[in-house]
From TrEMBL:
UniProt-listed GO biological process terms: DNA repair
Enzyme type, top EC level: hydrolase
Name of this protein: phosphoglycolate phosphatase
GO function terms (MF aspect): phosphoglycolate phosphatase activity
Native source organism of the sequence: Roseisalinus antarcticus
Gene3D superfamilies: HAD superfamily/HAD-like, Putative phosphatase, domain 2
Keyword Repressor appears in the UniProt entry: no
Entries under InterPro entries matching the protein: HAD-like_hydrolase_sf, HAD-like_sf, HAD-SF_hydro_IA, HAD_2, HAD_sf, PGP-like_dom2
Family statement: Belongs to the HAD-like hydrolase superfamily. CbbY/CbbZ/Gph/YieH family.
PANTHER family linked: PHOSPHOGLYCOLATE PHOSPHATASE
Length: 220
């Protein structure tokens, strides 16, 4: 069986504002105020909680690895409490997923968001049942760009690991697909826009309406 595996943050949904709000919660708790901007720093949000904390601390006193480790669980708790205040699915995302399923593709999610938070977000968005498998950052001992989480997602779908592709939005997704020896489709509607094309993905899309045709052209 052929499969299409999706990244979550920055690919299926724009989660940046809620992620940055969680990081700013940490900074306010330290008396530093809101150090990140939900628009200007949106791209950093898609590189994870520690990246946001590092960026914020660099603006006041320099990044402190100990403080970042201390604040990371605080960030996760704050994010989990308000996981879908501003988050929105990108236009056409689930319609594209349903078209792929209707064409016989198995679909799954492989994300560097902790699995429990990913499960909760997909449930709150009402789309968990659209995906046959979900692998998060802590499902395995390793995370993307290691290819193991992608391969595990495909395995849980019962699909052929040689007949899959990864849909993502960052260099992490590009490196994951390359390490697994499968094609990568990068979206250009995220905060970095067409800059992802410099990563030389096998394909790209500017809207989810284009995904089915692009995946078919990959001839998985």
């Amino acid at each position: 069986m052929k499969s299409v595996i999706f990244d979550l943050d920055g690919t299926l949904a724009d989660t940046s504002a809620d992620l940055i709000a969680a990081a700013n919660h940490c900074f306010r708790g330290l008396g530093l105020g809101d150090l990140l901007d939900p628009v200007a720093d949106a791209a950093t949000a898609f590189h994870g909680g520690r990246a946001m904390l590092q960026l914020g601390f660099s603006r006041v006193e320099g990044p402190d690895a100990v403080e970042i480790d201390r604040q990371y669980p605080v960030l996760l708790k704050a994010y989990g409490a308000d996981i879908c205040v501003h988050t929105r699915l990108y236009p056409g995302a689930i319609a594209a997923v349903e078209r792929l399923r209707g064409a016989g593709y198995a679909v799954g999610v492989c994300t560097n968001k902790p699995e429990g938070l990913a499960e909760r977000l997909l449930q709150v968005l009402g789309i968990r049942d659209a995906f046959g498998a979900l692998v998060g950052a802590d499902t395995l001992p390793v995370r993307k760009p290691d290819p193991a989480p992608l391969r595990e997602t495909v395995r849980r779908l019962g699909a052929d690991p040689a007949r899959t592709c990864l849909i993502g939005d960052t260099d992490t997704d590009r490196k994951t697909a390359a390490a697994a020896g499968v094609p990568c489709v990068l979206v250009t509607f995220g905060p970095t826009g067409d800059a992802v094309l410099a990563l030389n993905p096998e394909a790209s899309i500017g809207h989810f309406d284009d995904l089915a045709g692009v995946v078919d052209a990959l001839a998985l």
